[in-house]
Design a protein that fits this description.
32% of the residues lie in helices and 23% in strands. It is of the alpha+beta class and 402 residues long. The strands form three sheets. Strands 8, 9, 10, 11, 12, 13, 14 and 15 form an eight-stranded antiparallel sheet that branches. The chain has a five-stranded antiparallel sheet with strand order 3-4-5-6-7, with no helix packed on it. Helix 1 packs parallel to helix 2, helix 2 runs parallel beside helix 6 and helix 5 packs parallel to helix 7.
């Protein structure tokens, strides 16, 4: 009888933490999904993939191939019948083929097809380094490659491997490196990544790299203590990506002002889709196309003057300025009751350690709103939202004196 997803998940974590030896999972094939005719099908087989990687790596590290060779061969044949999402490239299809290639490597299989498909899938989702399914799923994928790195180096990277294996593996390593650099660039001073796409709190090794970094879907500016990510999505629909449109994500040192919404878990999202899939869970400018069922296909080109937002960090690195063109409705975190007007009819308020000042033509304070954001797995927070209408609006965000 096939194991449940929870049982496979538990087995993976016990094995990865070395709480049980891998021989306790024999026969290995029992941990694969149920067979239907000639296929093994599961809607989200990521734990089956990761368990295959972990078994292959631990067998390789133990060096005890012969004792378990028969069981591994059976596992390898059974895993080959596991359905992948190809040709729809995603984090699932990538981890599927990482698991397949790990079993190939531990059994010394010169199967060029699997490593070539893995290279193709990774290349498709990696794009220019800004992983098309967002930060959380990029971390899942890079963690998979980190686990199998030694095993892959010893098989696909060795000098006498066939050229097709070596070339595909070289391409894979280059793309993994591009994704890891992008992960660091979208992280605050503690290494906490912006929540781009579905996901929650993820942390990587922080970087001190400064400068302006341009990707197809976003421009990242790391200047002094500020990190700003100007989204301008160009690439098409991806399963776990949000459009973000012209949303600007903002961190100062290790404090996130606008981090992205994400999701706390599949269960939370499926239980309340109107809450988590609504477009106005984000801080982009509002549009007449913000309908909950089509918003994930909305794009915003940086060359579109109607949607453009320009951002400037002042020389003292104490404040940033976001300028809007034409008539807009903008959204920022804050309590509407705390908003005041100064002598110039500008709107001012504070939120956390940040102070806001918004000025413009025909400026008007609109009804308040809220946004929901994932914090950690299964956890969330509600963020109050201030909505402001006007023309040629200018928002100055300043760090309060400590």
């Amino acid at each position: 009888m096939a194991k449940t997803t929870a049982e496979v998940n538990e087995a993976y974590h016990h094995l990865s933490r070395k709480e049980v030896p891998f021989n306790h999972l024999v026969p290995f094939s029992q941990w694969l999904p149920r067979k239907y005719i000639n296929w093994r099908i599961h809607w989200n087989a990521i734990w089956h993939h990761r368990l295959a990687m972990e078994i292959a790596c631990q067998v390789s590290e133990a060096g005890d191939y012969h004792t378990f060779q028969g069981g591994l061969e059976d596992y390898w044949r059974s895993y080959k019948k596991l359905y992948s999402t190809m040709p729809f490239c995603s984090n699932k299809s990538i981890s599927h083929y990482v698991g397949q290639c790990a079993l190939d490597a531990v059994l010394w299989k010169n199967d060029e097809k699997n490593i070539i498909i893995l290279d193709k899938a990774l290349k498709t989702v990696t794009k220019d380094g800004a992983f098309n399914e967002g930060g959380h799923y990029s971390k899942y994928v890079t963690d998979c490659f980190d686990r199998v790195e030694n095993l892959f180096d010893g098989w696909y990277g060795k000098e006498d491997s066939p050229d097709a294996l070596k070339e595909s593996y070289k391409s894979i390593k280059e793309n993994v490196a591009k994704v890891k650099r992008w992960q660091q660039l979208i992280s605050d001073s503690d290494g906490v990544m912006a929540v781009i796409g579905d996901g929650w709190y993820e942390k990587v090794e922080p970087t001190n790299e400064q400068g302006l970094f341009k990707y197809d879907d976003m421009t990242i500016n790391r200047q002094g203590p500020w990190l700003t990510i100007q989204n301008h999505r160009v690439n098409g629909f991806a399963l776990h990506q949000h459009p973000h449109c012209n949303e600007i994500l903002i961190a100062h040192e290790n404090d996130w002002l606008v981090k992205g919404s994400g999701m706390p878990s599949y269960k939370h999202v499926m239980k309340k889709p109107f809450k988590w899939r609504r477009p106005r869970n984000h801080f982009f400018t509002e549009s007449k196309w913000d309908w909950w069922w089509i918003w994930r296909s909305r794009k915003s080109s940086p060359n579109d003057s109607r949607a453009a937002r320009t951002l400037k960090i002042d020389e003292g690195t104490n404040s940033i300025v976001i300028s809007e063109t034409n008539k807009k409705i903008i959204r920022w975190p804050g309590e509407r009751n705390n908003v005041k007007r100064d002598d110039n009819n500008s709107l001012i308020w504070s939120y956390g350690k940040f102070s806001f000042k918004v000025e413009g033509i025909n400026i008007q304070l609109m009804t308040s709103d809220c946004a929901y954001a994932a914090t950690t797995y299964r956890n969330e927070q509600q963020i109050p939202v201030i909505r402001i209408s006007g023309e040629n609006l200018i928002t100055r965000i300043t760090v309060n004196d400590k």
